[in-house]
Amino acid sequence: MGLLAATAGVTAAELLATLTRPQAGPLVAVGSTLIDAAPTPVKEFAVRTFGTYDKPLLLGGIGLALAGLAVLTGLLARRRSAAGLGGAALLGVLGAVAALLRPGARAVDVLPSVAGALVAAGVLRWLLPRPASAAEPVVPRPGEVRPIRGPSRRALARNAALVAAGTALGVAGTGLLRGSSSRDAERSREAVRLPAPADPAAPLPDGVGPAFHTRNADFYRVDTALTVPRLDTDTWRLRIRGMVDRPLELSFADLLDRELVERDITLNCVSNEVGGPYVGTARWLGVPLAPLLRAAGIRAGADQVVARSSEGMTIGTPVETVLDGRDAMLAVGMNGEPLPLEHGFPVRMLTPGLFGYAGACKWVVDLELSTFASFDAYWVRRGWAREAPVKTASRIDRPAPFARLPAGQVVVAGVAWAQGRGIAAVEVSVDSGPWQPSTLLPVPSTDTWVQWRYQWPATPGGHSLRVRATDRTGDVQTESRTTPFPDGATGWHTIAVTVI
């Protein structure tokens, strides 16, 4: 009974949230609150171990916990109905509080959780046996066998079937509504016709290796949003406000009417371990950010741009990095097409040379000029560094770790990056021997990774390969191993192989 009642309540809550404010749904609200409250090591473990599956696993865990509590509530309710109804109310309060704790929350965000609690309580009350008649003695006489007053087995089965059917209809309705919302967002994306850039990217230089650009489908994703925001270009607006003389509000059409630039830029996630996959290069199309901020009139003392996404995430970027000549932009295109929904459609912010958590807000809807002294963005409040320049790094992509290779000439290859500074050299060491120079392939700018290759005369046996890079300022990648927290991992990527 408890499980049926809880399922009906959650379904009603999620259906109401889908009709009104999807981010107010109790599952998303509770899940997002748990993500916010989780210690940094737990977050890092989840990202490192599960990748983009961490969010579905969290929602599944919440569902299992809720199922356990629902069963317990049902058992308690059979003994004392007030306990069961109190349990339903408690779950509703938890969902409502979680919804109110979300960034950008509104008072109406409590309604889905409250409605879900009322539905769960009502269903539970309907399914519970009725209390004994007041005319009957409370304590049965010795030897008396008194049947429980309540619905017959047949009636209970009928009631349970009705609840299950209603819940199934609610689940189906929620799925249809969410599917419709996703299709609307996708149709909005498909309707976008990106204009030609006023300042196009230069063609890739001759000699660039294959897969220089990361396919959109393969580009890494690390974000806190439990569900991908579904925005459309007709209603999307961007506000530029805060410490400015002339606050601005721009539509998507306003952005496309401005002069667009096209650039090849490599992005990194600060959660990337040494040799990890959370780095990628794409050809981005967007509106330069510096002219927009200057048009708004940046007031003296403003040293931080606080970008907010549609679901409330905050990213803090130093104003100086937007104005220093790098190609910071509000991107609308990625590899020749509108941004994918998962990568920030319709608009995301990019700041070359900074880790994503400090300069690459997805689904951006608000830019506030502020100060670092007055506001800490989401990740800074959790102990990450305020300023996050990308570190000089390199990775071995071929051969794969623990590969078995034939003896003879073996191509060792990978990528290295130091956005804004560029890579001057990449070296490979075999079995901790002398560092050997690799060949660097051409690159379009210092804002992208460099592909490198090394011809290794491999001999039979087990071997270790390691790589290090030197940027154009002369900074050599450090051997010292550190974790991503609080400002990015360091160390030499090392793999083991066997030559046969």
Q: How are the strands of the biggest sheet laid out side by side?
A: 2-1-10-5-6
Number of strands: 19
Structural class: alpha+beta
> Which runs of at least 5 residues are low in confidence (pLDDT < 50)?
132-137, 145-150
Q: Portion of residues in helices? A: 25-40%
Mean pLDDT rating: 87
DSSP strand content: 15-25%
The H/E string reads HHHHHHHEEHEEHEEHEEEEEEEEEEEEE
Rg from C-alpha positions?
Answer: 28 Å
N- to C-terminal distance:
63 Å
Shape: globular
* Largest sheet descriptor: 5 strands, mixed
- The figure for the number of domains is 3
Describe this structure in words.
The structure is a single chain. With 500 residues, the chain is an alpha+beta fold. It has three domains: 2-185, no CATH class; 216-382, Oxidoreductase, molybdopterin-binding domain (Sulfite Oxidase, Chain A, domain 2), CATH 3.90.420.10; 393-499, Sandwich (Immunoglobulin-like), CATH 2.60.40.650. Helices cover 32% and strands 23% of the residues. It has helices at 2-19, 26-37, 40-50, 54-79, 81-101, 111-127, 153-190, 252-257, 289-296, 319-323; strands at residues 237-242, 248-251, 261-268, 279-288, 304-309, 314-318, 329-334, 337-338, 348-350, 364-370, 393-398, 404-405, 408-417, 423-430, 436-437, 439-440, 450-458, 461-471, 493-499. The strands form four sheets. Strands 2-1-10-5-6 form a five-stranded mixed sheet. Strands 3, 4, 7, 8 and 9 form a five-stranded antiparallel sheet that branches. The chain has a five-stranded mixed sheet with strand order 12-19-18-14-15, with no helix packed on it. It is globular and about 80 Å long. 41% of the residues are buried.
